[in-house]
């Protein structure tokens, strides 16, 4: 008797699946029995240069090991493109069970130098793209009383990073989007979760390697491959994650983290309310001990991955 795979019988869309994390998720989804719509417009991270080859190559990899997959080169940034991606899944495979919102681009710039185009393009792909695909999938999920959405967020939004106001805003927006979907569609059996993946390739390349200890450290950092993120995404797409929704996870090599979500940490109260002067003299000094620092991701994750 053949072993049951985690996604047997399911149909899954993975956006931005022509390379990197999306590719590894698509490949593992196929290996776990899913029929996969591999979506990628073939653009580089900066949004320039299009090539319809990446999606087709991943489809070929899935088919080469006996899986089922089709390529999609529509853009998630436009509602019509998202509708076509979802329709392709339903028309080709008869249903849709899961979506991984992974498509993204980067347009890094310090905030005071960021153009409207750099802001707009990043939000369109990341935040609007996640909404567009999820919204297009929602009627199918509602009708069949089930479905799973996995959105890629980032510690750039959850914690902060410099020169990424567009990316950080989009990625934190995705967290709010995911939680709202989880709340609104809970009664239809639809789940929505976020993953913040670690990929420090640029940091790795800048580390000076001048000792055996540094060589060993770089080797550990290089283990943070996209393939390490895929198992959690596959789990969240599957039925064994039936009770998991509205959560924020992170994957860093062999570590899986559950992130906190904003809640009050301290309060002050004064009968009759506050004047600005009283806030300055009493409220802020009382609250200041619980202020958050201006951290970036590396200030929080100070230890090397294991």
TrEMBL record:
Domain called Ketoreductase: residue spans = 10-203
Q: Pfam families from the entry?
A: adh_short
What PROSITE patterns does the record tag this protein with? ADH_SHORT
Q: Family assignment?
A: Belongs to the short-chain dehydrogenases/reductases (SDR) family.
**The protein's name:** NAD(P)-dependent dehydrogenase (Short-subunit alcohol dehydrogenase family)
User: Which species is this record about?
Assistant: Xanthobacter flavus
